[in-house]
Amino acid sequence: MLRRDFLRNLVITTGGLVVAPSLLSACGTSATSSGELVIGTPTNPTKLPANGEAIADGLAEEKGTLEILNWADYTNPEVIADFEKLFGVTIKTSIYDTEESAIAKLRNGTFKPDLIIGLTDTALARLSAAKLLQPINKSYIPHFTNLIGGLQSPYYDLDSQYTVAHVIYANGIAYRTDRIDSSVFTSGNGYDAMWDSAYKGKLAVLDSYRDTISLAMFQAGKNDVNTSDADVLSAAQENLIRLRNATNPKVDILSYQELPAGNRDIAFTWSGDILTALGYLPEGTPAESLGFWYPEQTITANDFLCIPKDSKAPVLAHKFIDYLLDTDVALKNQTYVGYQPALSTITVDTLLSSGAIPETLKDSLVTPEKYDSGQRLVSLSPDADALWLDAWAAFTAG
Length: 398
Description:
By secondary structure, this protein is α/β, with parallel strands linked by helices. The chain has helices at 21-26, 77-87, 99-108, 121-129, 183-186, 209-219, 230-247, 255-261, 271-277, 314-324, 327-337, 348-353, 368-373, 382-396; strands at residues 18-19, 37-38, 65-70, 90-95, 115-119, 164-176, 203-206, 250-252, 266-270, 290-293, 300-306, 340-341.
């Protein structure tokens, strides 16, 4: 699988604020057609501005082709084939590799999909401000109630007006159980393992400045992952340089491949990647060789499904969203994608009893309670983001 990069690189605002075009121009971001960006946070949820009406109830689904914009390898081909057979249609998939490129090509018309899969809330503000999305009509999505409660009305899109949650994940430490004893995470500060020189050359961190700088903060007992405090960020920078000097880490998003291949012993990564890693284990290597430590203080996140305003097959797009929220379909999709469906109907026990996830990776699964208790990365003001990027540059320069 070509794992997507969740870099949160929209440098706009903190809090549920509206940002004027002059500020966007000052930070090098083009103003959208509406001239404003509205961004919600967990402490200041937002109702997105209205953009037209949802499609009417009771319409027949379109025939022909459903065009989907998606990350590479992010939907099980068997799930797609089953939907095609069920509705007598053809699905055509276009691929994007960053949220920025997807938004640009949606705005200039290069991409004209009927459905988009996998964007996150940092992209939503610009999609909404540019009036690129149409409201969701939940009458076509009876499986909507399968979503975990906290994502039926998420902070970034209250009442799920324009989006429907898709998968959930958390940050943590993946490791080889045949090389590292799990006691290193439970005998003290588990984050300390990432600074252990015993793993020099066999350790990796995420190539995501917000996530990895947050790692340095958590290790030092700092928990504000959206801080604009220059002293806190300076300390995090020095802490990452200490990690670099001790372990010479790889900085990438390939641990889902490199851990099962045996090229790494330990990695700071997204929980979904260790589930994906199961599919990359060489023949004869047991699933029990992979482990995951889920920190008490960490980041949780999700991505979502949405329908462009100019979708040529909006009813069929709604039907595909509903299809993905069906418990059996979501389970089938999970076995290919790895990432965990954001459904209350797919519990930890469900994934374990189905055989999709081995007992040894139970700790990598995100329960609704874990999701709610996790921290969220929100977009930053340009000045604050510059501090984060400076810290990241100092770390990666070495």
